[in-house]
Amino acid sequence: MSSSAPNITGSDGMKVFGAVLSALREAHGATQEELGRHVGYSKSLVAKVEGGERLASPEFIAKAEEVLDAKGALRAAAPHLKWTRLPAWFGEYAKREQEAVSVWSYDTHVIKGLVQTEDYARAVLSAYVPVLEEDEIERQVRTRMERQALLTRKPAVSLAMVIEECVLRRPVGGKAILRAQLERLLELSEMRNVSIQIMPTHYETHAGFDGPFTLLETPESQWVAYVEGQSTGTVFDDRKEVSRFQDRYGMIRTQALVPKDSVRLIEEMIRES
Hints:
The protein has two domains: 12-85, 434 Repressor (Amino-terminal Domain), CATH 1.10.260.40; 88-272, Endonuclease, Chain A (2-Layer Sandwich), CATH 3.30.870. It is 49% helix and 12% strand. The chain contains twelve helices and six strands. It has helices at 12-28, 32-39, 43-50, 58-68, 73-77, 88-99, 118-126, 134-147, 165-169, 175-189, 239-255, 259-272, and strands at residues 102-107, 158-164, 194-199, 213-217, 223-228, 233-236. A six-stranded mixed sheet has the order 3-2-1-4-5-6, with helices on both faces. It is elongated.
């Protein structure tokens, strides 16, 4: 998941939480508008939480517990919301990513969420249109940071990245935030399980013109491909289709700068910043 962050849609955990909240509110004799005033949400947002369409923030849960005299019912239901921070269409990929032994990615717009710094992730999510609310931005940031445990777990995932040079030159969030992100990439490049390559902008042609994509290797040594669009993502597991992505990625890696030269270019960008 890179820059897109559509509204979170209902999962089973969110729907159950919403049903419990609705029952407690009605038992308390409060309307959605009244509850919203107490917890700092609009009536429409309360309705979305109750309908399982919106994730309740920790602050919402704490205040609703107090206002509705829920006796711990909402806090007990909250742990089931952990994985619902992700958009429903991203969920299948996220689960496969956490199980993957290898992740190979080609990125053309922003640096991959799996290696973003908090500030860079926050800047990317803050640029989303329609505008996301602050609490949702922070939830998305936390989720991205949690995903990064994949890089240091045992056994750690094997991560190969090819990034378009223009992505590393765009001052997302400002020069200071970009510099910190570039330094983060240098740190990652020193890890034995991480390979970072840059596709120079001045190249006239290369095999990645069809856009960004990711390849995952499962514990069973099977590969799947993932392509993300504006508000959707698709996992491909058909062997012929995945083979085409693998061929394309192999060519992209061959055409990009080798890791050592890529590191030198990142260091040069940092000096220039």
